[in-house]
Fold:
Amino acid sequence: ASLDTERDHPVLSGGGVYNGPQVAMGSNGNAFAVWVQSDGNADSAWAARYRPNRGWSAPVRIEGSDVYPVSALDGIQLAVDGAGTGVASWQQSDGNAWSIWANRTE
Structure:
């Protein structure tokens, strides 16, 4: 894959508070971006995928805060292997205890 040096490529724009963005690319040209986003009440982990000749996907929430209430989410990290498999990890609190979470996508 070649780098387009003629322009930047927005992954997400608009309102909200975004923290800790990470971007990683596999040797096959697939890339992922992850970040923590706050709606003012709670934090969520989000991701978007880049595929050559397709561009960036719509962002999706990658943590299950509907099942496990999140009072804080921090330290998001991202790794992508040569085959384009991405793994994101982060720590999140339910207000009582911190846990480490991860999500994987191909």
Notes: The mean pLDDT is 81. The two ends are 18 Å apart (CA to CA).
